[in-house]
Amino acid sequence: MNSKQQTVLLNDGHFIPILGFGTSAPQEVPRSKATEATKIAIDAGFRHIDCAAVYQNEKEVGLAIRSKIVDGTVKREDIFCTSKVWQTFHRPELVQVCLEQSLKQLQLDYVDLYLIHFPIAMKPGENYFPKDENGKFIYDAVDICDTWEAMEKCKDAGLAKSIGVCNFNRRQLEKILSKPGLKYKPVCNQVECHPYLNQRKLLDFCRSKDIVLVAHSALGSNRDKEWVDKSFPVLLDDPVLGSMAKKYNRTPALIALRYQVQRGVVVLAKSFIEKRIKENMQVFEFQLTSVDMKVLDGLNKNIRYIGSSISEDHPDFPFLDEY
Q1: In this structure, are strands 7-9 and 15-17 parallel, antiparallel, or unpaired?
Q2: What is the DSSP letter of 108?
Q3: Segments of the chain with pLDDT less than 50
Q4: Torsion of CA 23, 40, 108, 168, to 10 degrees
Q5: Which residue ranges does the record assign to the NADP-dependent oxidoreductase domain (predicted)?
Q6: CA angle 83, 87, 89 (to 5 degrees)
Q7: Residue 31 and residue 64: Cα distance in Å, rounded?
Q8: 3-class DSSP state for residue 111?
Q9: Which among 181, 206, 180, 183 is positioned nearest to 193, based on CA atoms?
Q10: 103-124 pLDDT, tens per residue?
Q11: Strands 188-192 and 212-216
């Protein structure tokens, strides 16, 4: 980690800011909020903006980025923008189509990072979540290595500076890494990661392959009723985080974010509340002791807030493996 730049070196030579601003939002949040929140985030100092086609607010996020370039707050090269190819675009001929749609929405010529959002292909079409008459997801038979080759072409075309994956387990990463004719390794694997799911084994594996771990849902989750089991404990209510927050005179959220930064994990902080967005930038203003880092390591409960209801009947469902 380069602490002066607060960035991490990727295996293709590019740098990724270690703190990112997440833009996914529950359906009840108006899309216009994404413009307002992203502007606040950029003004507060965020330079890494994490987007995805499936969030369906890239147009609004793009408006914020464009306005901050126009008003002179940032240049395009100051912003590290991520997008993701959705499951209904896994066919090789559709990968660049999805990226070009995102670029048009974002009003950008390229993204800094393009990711495969989830390692399971779904039936192409207008519907992001295609289901049959029984409410079951309709899958598509696409080899993930074929999708990866199309990702490589997006990098070669200059539409994405770096390429990586999301929500992949070790086996799925190894499949790409051992692919005959591999041109580019994934630079990162973006996965759910927080003190209740610290991903230690996956982190160690990724490090051994020079792949950066990026943490989404780093503060637990927004408790979206569609995805999250309400019986799960609320991470930020954890008494250990609470006592550390008092000790360091910070919020429990900042303790959870700082934990990832000190592990060298790129961490996404998501909020649509101005005070919290600004507060999250304080992650660079303090340091946890090695003893406290070990205590936080000990909070792991293998609780996964996100994704347990998506495609768990599929043989390639990534969360059935230990890591």
Answers
A1: antiparallel
A2: -
A3: 1-4
A4: -30
A5: 19-300
A6: 80
A7: 12
A8: strand
A9: 206
A10: 999 999 999 999 999 999 999 9
A11: parallel
Out of 55, 114, 196, 259, the active site residue is: 55
Say how far apart CA 66 and CA 74 lie, in whole Å. 9
DSSP category for residue 167? S
The pLDDT score that the predictor gives to residue 222 is 56
117 is in an annotated binding site: yes
* Cα gap 186→211, rounded to integer Å: 7
| Domains of the chain with CATH codes | 7-313 (3.20.20.100)
DSSP line for 185-233:
--SEEEEE-BTTB--HHHHHHHHHTT-EEEEESTT-----TTTS-TTSP
Amino acid at 92: P
Alpha-carbon distance 130 to 128, whole Å? 6
- β-pairing verdict for 19-22 and 266-269: parallel
Q: Is 323 a catalytic residue?
A: no
